[in-house]
Amino acid sequence: MDWSKPVNAEPFRIKMVEPVRMTSRAERERLIAAAGYNLFALDSKDIFIDLLTDSGTGAMSDRQWAGIMQGDEAYAGSRNFFHFKETIEKLLGFPYVIPTHQGRAAENVLFTTLLREGQVVPNNMHFDTTKAHVEHKRGKARNFVCPEGLVAEEVADFKGNMDLEKLDRFMAENGKETAPFIMLTITCNSNGGQPVSMENIRGVRRIADKHGVPLFFDCARFAENAYFIKEREPGYAQTPVREIVREMLSYADGCTMSAKKDALVNIGGFLAMRSEELYQQAIVWAVLFEGFPTYGGLAGRDLEAMARGLQEVVEEDYLRYRIGQVAYLGALLNEAGVPIVLPTGGHAVYLDAKRFLPHLPPEQFPAQALTVELYREGGVRGVEIGSLLAGRDPETGKNIHPELEMVRLTIPRRTYTDRHMEYVAQTVVNVFQRRESIGGLELVHEPPVLRHFTCRLQPVV
Ligand code: F0G
């Protein structure tokens, strides 16, 4: 123990526990084969540590649970909606907000309002549902993340940054008729939960202004992004996170939000914006897809939990613990020589499956093979972010093999202890020590859209 370093103790006490069950190796062998080597098909009761996602899997505070008991379930004009709206205006600076049942529903409302067939959406990196929603509107999703963002082992402070030059060139060549708005995902989930710097955000804003298009943030992990700016960007060390959040969002015309992440709730989302005109256009679709604009597919109590969660997520003690726990797991793995995406991001540690299993070609889904092996070894469920998730090119029908072939070990918020992190690290290290013996996988059933959720695979013999 290095006592010269501060101990990153959890800034909460545990008031309620949920038992988790350990399975035997033989049981897990049988279960994963029955699940078609797809971890989405496992029952959660058969998982010891579930790192599938940080989405909706966090623990709410006693204050949030108390808010649940104060739900006003009126169809229209619930008092919880007004608390929610006021919180968003104060915290993020947007006067108009439409609650939605989760993040992708906000994407659906926004894209239905603004995107036409054949148009293109530039983003640093689209999350998979965002890309799928763009394509559902017969648009094209284009990624403009900076080059270092695509090199797993390259250490840089803001690997979520947009490549400004490339974006500017693209906008100059295509114009606002082709690209009607720009998006920026903070933090950038698809390359490791990597943050975007304030300087880069300003740069994206300048490009949006130059080409006369609005800029929307995908805000799912905005507080984690703000904390990285405080820690890493010159000039922000003394700035309160709340102020950093306000400044970040001041450069956006609106945002989509999956509240299941940085609003610390189990379900919810929203679409927020500055323009009343856009709001009036968007509520037409929101009513159709989600419900009346003061509940948007949620219960009044959910809106209250979101309002309270949004206040808690910007507390600096919370963020120090949160980012610190993810970094702790990353450090344990890095010290053991396990190849991970560096530096660790905000919500997950990403194993670099290309370097972990160099003997497996991308056609054999190395990251999925590794995910399966972690379950077999220790009952840990991670998630593949690689060739399986990337799917096929809609034009050529060919498998896409992305630059990054990763397994994401996603840490739910306020849910697991650091001892759990040590257990996860041990599981990964055990697999790493016998990595040469791990074989690949092939598809036996492949649905046409978002295939990773429901496909079935088998070991390559
Ligand atoms: N945007 C980002 C950056 C996300 O990470 C997600 C969800 C969404 C949008 C969609 O939000 O799930 O509430 O509809 N990410 C989850 C994940 C599912 O596991 O990373 P949603």
What does this structure look like?
- The mean pLDDT is 96.
- The chain is globular and about 60 Å long.
- The strands form five sheets. Strands 2-8-7-6-5 form a five-stranded mixed beta sheet, with helices on both faces. The protein has a three-stranded antiparallel beta sheet with strand order 9-12-11. A two-stranded parallel ribbon has the order 1-10.
- α5 (128-136) links the parallel β3 (120-123) and β4.
- α4 (103-114) crosses α10 and α12 packs parallel to α16.
- The chain is α/β, with parallel strands linked by helices and 461 residues long.
- It is built from 16 helices and 14 strands.
- Bound molecules: ligand F0G.
- Residues 53, 55, 102-104, 127, 129-130, 185, 189, 218, 220, 258, 260, 269 line the site of ligand F0G.
N- and C-termini, Cα separation: 45 Å
Pick out the low-confidence regions: none
- Give the H and E element order: HEHHEHEHEHEHEHHEEHHHEHHEEHEHEE
Mean pLDDT: 96
Strand order of the largest sheet: 2-8-7-6-5
Question: What is the rounded Rg?
Answer: 21 Å
What fraction of residues sit in β-strands?
5-15%
- Bin the helical content: 40-55%
Number of strands: 14
**Sheet of most strands:** 5 strands, mixed
Number of discrete helical segments? 16
**Class based on secondary structure composition and strand pairing:** alpha/beta
Ligand inventory reads: ligand F0G
Shape from CA axes?
globular
